């Protein structure tokens, strides 16, 4: 068990996103304690440990055998998530994984079942539904602002990852691509608010098959894109509402941003699916202009990377399930894979997963 009240954590994977996670964790010493970190590349774990004042574990076993570690934070690349999470659960640790939970339905389900069998908590990114703006959007829907929900749409036009990420190859390979890597953000919000998706259709294509790394030690190196880099999905939710979701590593600048939810009496909109301080707007049917809905609480600016960890740490202490659960993440994975399959098959694909709705933060 960790010292004091703070939940002790080990980070597995010390790449690009580990720094923002660590900075954010260090801002919450009462709740979260970074015990140590491990990376396949030893120097990465060592320089991370020096910078953030924690141990550098020499192996995964060492991280998993530390009694100070209650929660493993899986920040490895997409295709490593399932095996790292499995090992951590088998070692008796709670886990929060970066997205996707896994890259196949079989692995995703096996992780959810393993956590349940071992009575351990399994949480997974995205956790953006925990943001103040996204909670405000959700409460407005629950309060009947748009009436009966009929249609929802979302766009994640994420642009050219290789322009800023020093190791972008994994983002353009099977197991990632824009739907699994960033389409999951609005799916976290939409499925939390509207519930599970029943069936999907899709259109996915590789529009820029060769890319060039724009920064870091591999700058100038070309690589092949081996999974579609632009994906459009059509969703049918179990509650009967229709939806559309576009996710792209091609389109960058776009007026299509955010999430919209239309019901019998109007449309609600969050300008950004991810920023916790996104404006939330409402326009009733028959009116021309949006009006701003006040956020339920003072928002964090942008994305607070420790928000999902704070929730699962609280869940560990209270013996409840994390709000961003493995079960919901497994459904989101199923939605993403099904959209890609629907594109290949040229027909509708029905989903095989569902999940229990999370509890809102603001009732
Ligand atoms: N970079 C971002 O802005 C960002 C934002 C949100 C979420 N994420 C997610 O975070 C995850 C990591 O992204 P990143 O950008 O930090 O990637 P990255 O490639 O920069 O870092 C991944 C690290 O994991 C290590 N690793 C891989 N397999 C491992 C294993 N089995 N054991 C230990 N270490 C292992 C690699 O050596 C590397 O250092 C991805 O799932 C990504 O979707 C990234």
Top CATH class of the largest domain: Alpha Beta
CATH topology-level name of the largest domain: Dihydrodipicolinate Reductase, domain 2
Give the SSE string: EHEHEHEHEHEHEHEEEEEEEEEHHE
List cofactors, ions and other ligands: nicotinamide-adenine-dinucleotide
Radius of gyration: 20 Å
Strand content: 15-25%
Shape: globular
Within CATH, the superfamily of the largest domain carries the name Dihydrodipicolinate Reductase, domain 2
Determine the mean pLDDT.
97
What's the SSE blueprint?
Elements: E1 7-12, H1 18-26, E2 32-38, H2 42-52, E3 55-56, H3 60-65, E4 71-74, H4 81-90, E5 94-97, H5 105-118, E6 122-124, H6 132-142, E7 149-157, H7 177-194, E8 197-205, E9 210-212, E10 222-224, E11 230-237, E12 242-248, E13 258-263, E14 266-270, E15 280-284, E16 291-292, H8 307-318, H9 326-345, E17 349-350
Parallel strand pairs: 1-2, 1-4, 2-3, 4-5, 5-6, 7-12
Antiparallel strand pairs: 7-13, 8-11, 8-17, 9-10, 11-12, 13-14, 14-15, 15-16
Helix pairs in contact: 4-5, 5-9, 7-9
This protein binds nicotinamide-adenine-dinucleotide.
